[in-house]
Write a structure and sequence with these properties.
The complex is a heterodimer.
Chain A lengths: L4 E3 L2 E4 L5 E6 L6 E7 L6 E7 L2 E5 L6 E5 L5 E5 L8 E8 L7 E2 L3 E5 L1
Parallel strand pairs in A: 2-11
Antiparallel strand pairs in A: 1-3, 3-8, 4-5, 4-9, 5-6, 7-8, 9-10, 9-11
Chain B lengths: L2 E3 L4 E5 L4 E3 L2 E3 L4 E8 L5 E7 L5 E3 L5 E5 L4 E6 L8 E9 L6 E2 L3 E6 L1
Parallel strand pairs in B: 2-12
Antiparallel strand pairs in B: 1-4, 3-9, 5-6, 5-10, 7-8, 8-9, 10-11, 10-12
Classes of the chains: A mainly beta, B mainly beta.
């Protein structure tokens, strides 16, 4: 089975621009979570979606938003980019009734 | 609120030596505990998990971890480290039922030949 996939792999944006990151979970996984990982830190939770409903939101500004589609894939949107948004954005999916997360390779976002 | 402390930012060991990475958590009830590994430029991979039962859990790649409630710890161990184990290791805690883990800041493992 294919693992969690994310696109694009790398992205360079300018301050003030908007970005959309995409994630496809492992087949059969209905839960998708998004994390931000700044260099030298652990992943910070941004959002979790289950069956297209938001199940949790971390301490991030309203510039961050996400959604989940009927096929359980997900998008993370970030508006009005700041230099501090530069990070590795990780997507993870979870099987029903389980707690461990399966991570994708991430999208490296650089804001200049 | 739950929290995780990984007190060692870097650990250096020689290949073949034993390894112990420390993890302390803060959570009132019995937590769900995880160790993940991240190789450079990669996502995180689950090494092992503890939910309940036997406090010594076995994981992949020869790793094990022991849950000690009295010390609020969940330390990761490996009897003999291989050069390929060089990576970043993250401990995570989740309150039962939340499905949302909190990660520590990670410990970077350096392996000398």
């Amino acid at each position: 089975d294919a693992g969690v996939t994310q696109s694009p792999t790398h992205l360079i944006k300018t301050r003030g621009q908007q970005v959309t990151l995409r994630c496809s979970p492992i087949s059969g996984h209905k839960s998708v979570s998004w994390y931000q990982q700044v260099l030298g830190q652990g992943p910070q939770f941004i959002f979790q979606y289950y069956e297209k409903e938001e199940r949790g939101r971390g301490n991030f500004p309203d510039r961050f938003s996400a959604r989940q589609f009927p096929n359980y894939s997900s998008e993370l949107n970030v508006n009005a980019l700041l230099l501090g948004d530069s990070a590795l954005y990780l997507c993870a999916s979870t099987p029903d009734g389980r707690y461990e997360q399966y991570f994708g390779p991430g999208t490296r976002l650089t804001v200049t | 609120a739950q929290s995780v402390t990984q007190p060692d930012i870097h650990i250096t060991v020689s290949e073949g030596a034993s390894l112990e990475l420390r993890c302390n958590y803060s959570y009132g009830a019995t937590p769900y505990l995880f160790w993940y590994v991240q190789s450079p430029g990669q996502g995180l991979q689950l090494l092992l998990k503890y939910f309940s039962g036997d406090t010594l859990v076995q994981g992949i790649k020869g790793f094990e971890a022991e849950f000690k409630r009295s010390q609020s710890s969940f330390n990761l161990r490996k009897p003999s480290v291989h050069w390929s184990d060089a990576a970043e290791y993250f401990c995570a805690v989740e309150s039962g039922g939340s499905y949302i883990p909190t990660f520590g800041r990670g410990t970077s493992l350096i392996v000398h030949p």
